[in-house]
Amino acid sequence: MKTIFSIALVAILFVSCQSTGSNVIADTNPVSTEQKSAIQPIANVDSQSTIFQVEANEADTILLPNGGSVVFEKNSFVDSKGKVVKGKVDVQWEEFHSLEDIMLSGIPMKYDSAGVANDLVSGGMFTIHASQKKKEVEMAEGKSAQVNLVSLQDTPCYNFYELDEESGDWTYETTQNGEVIEVPEEAQKSAPESDVLQIDLMTDNIEELHGKDIVGWKTVSPLDGKDKNVLASRYTKTKLESTEVEGEYLAKIVIGKLTHEYKVKPYFMSDAIKDSKGNNAELASETKALLKYANDVASGKVLRSIEIDDFGTYNWDVVNYRENSKRVIASFSFPDKTDARIVSLFLISPDENIIVNYNASGDKKFSFDPDKRNCLIAILPDNSLVSFSDKDFNAVRAAKRGTSYEFKMKPTNIKLKSAKDISNHLEELI
Predict the structure, then answer these.
(1) Which of 265, 212, 256 is nearest to 234 (CA)?
(2) d(CA 242, CA 244)
(3) Calpha distance 173→336 (Å, rounded)
(4) N or C: which end of the chain has fewer CB within 10 A?
(5) Per-residue pLDDT tens digits for 160-218
(6) Nearest by Cα to 233 from 267, 282, 199
(7) What are 277-324's pLDDT values in tens digits?
């Protein structure tokens, strides 16, 4: 049986505003370069970087786990000598949305304009690089990639910036509106208990299925957006195995070096007819899949689209302007006489949706909004966390503007391994 699982792509239209299915082959570390980088990610923390594989000499599309995509033109890649690259290319992708993701990324979040340093409020940030056989490749002249990024921020209008990865300076590129993600009315209903998929599973080795009129496969458990993208990819092979549960089978789908497993049941023609009559509708399985997919994507709020002609780090962002800013001359003390020069220190303000990296050795330009919730989190050299809560900030709020204040960082029992460690602790601090 040869069938295709498809997802309709939504056309995206942007208007200007005033400024105020590829193969996932592995999770990996960023492509190494000899050039000094301003990006200094926190060491020994789980990376969210993913490698997708595309065909260089064909137009190809990467389907991102949260519903976004990256669309490449034919012959988009060249090597260091400018020669067009053929064959498979590894595209390294990482996106950052939450304050915790941005904190661990090591990406600088200051924007200098007219000599004034401002904090950035991210509407979605991403890093994209490409390589072939571990050698970096570049975007060919005259070519571009369209990046469709699902953002968690519902403010439509954001500026688009490109980072100079060596100096750490952001360059303003354009200002655009994002398209608010509209979920079809049908998709807003409660999610179905399972999904009916059209995938090519060979039943030759399953004797009880011989001669059966199978029109699809029903998953035992609902699928999330990531699973949808796996099944929309050009997988290399599939395999069906029996399980101990009668009528239930294990579908194995191989993509590159990874094998994805799903528990499924055959969806017979008789089932389809029965369901069609019961629902009083005859939606094709592709339509059902689209509605469920739209429901998954709805966890994001806005789809932002941009064309880039170079690989690197980019950010949909707006400059944060505080109505009430309080500045103090800050010094910081850490447990066990830790050398402050090797401490990563961050001010996190969830109400402003900003994260600011400060100098742990002391900062004369430390500022915050006393009317908002704030906390400090510092990462010590051994990846243990120390912090300063919003409640602790009450004393700083009471201090006079411009005076000196020592922030006494308190130890925690947390050893940082992933962004979850920060988000869990953040709830306690705020």
Answers:
(1) 256
(2) 7
(3) 45
(4) N
(5) 999 998 888 888 898 888 776 654 444 444 334 456 666 777 888 888 888 787 877 88
(6) 199
(7) 555 444 444 444 434 444 444 455 678 889 999 999 999 887 777 788
Average pLDDT over the chain, rounded to whole?
77
| pTM score | 0.62
DSSP 271-339: HHHHHHHHHT----HHHHHHHHHHHHHTTS-EEEEEEESS-EEEEEEEE---SS-EEEEEEEE-GGG--
DSSP helix/strand/coil, 206? coil
**Residue 146 DSSP label:** E
Mark 2-13 as b/e (b = at least 16 C-beta within 10 Å): eeebebeeeeee
What single DSSP character describes residue 194? S
Spatial distance between the Cα atoms of 11 and 61, rounded to a whole number of angstroms:
15
Distance CA(140)–CA(147), nearest Å, equals 16
245 is written with which tokens?
């549960």
Local structure of residue 84 (DSSP, 8 states): B
Find all residues with CB under 8 Å of 146, minimum gap 6, and list them. Answer: 70, 71, 305, 306, 307
Position 84 pLDDT exceeds 70: yes
Domains of the chain, start order: 23-181+300-319 (2.60.220), 192-289 (no CATH), 326-429 (2.60.40)
CB 20 within 8 A of CB 157: yes
- pLDDT tens string 96-147: 887 888 888 888 877 766 555 667 777 788 999 999 999 999 999 999 999 9
> 426: which 2 tokens?
């953040």
Distance (Å) of CA 389 to CA 67, 89, 351, 370, 382 = 35, 46, 14, 13, 21
| Spatial separation of the C-alpha atoms in residues 83 and 93, rounded to whole Å | 23
Q: Which two tokens stand for residue 149?
A: 């990024």
Q: φ and ψ at 209, to 5 degrees? A: -100, -5
The 10 Å Cβ neighbour count of residue 358 is 19
Closest of 197, 161, 178 to residue 7, by C-alpha: 197
Tokens, residue 378: 């510092």
Write down the H helix ranges in 317-399. 393-398
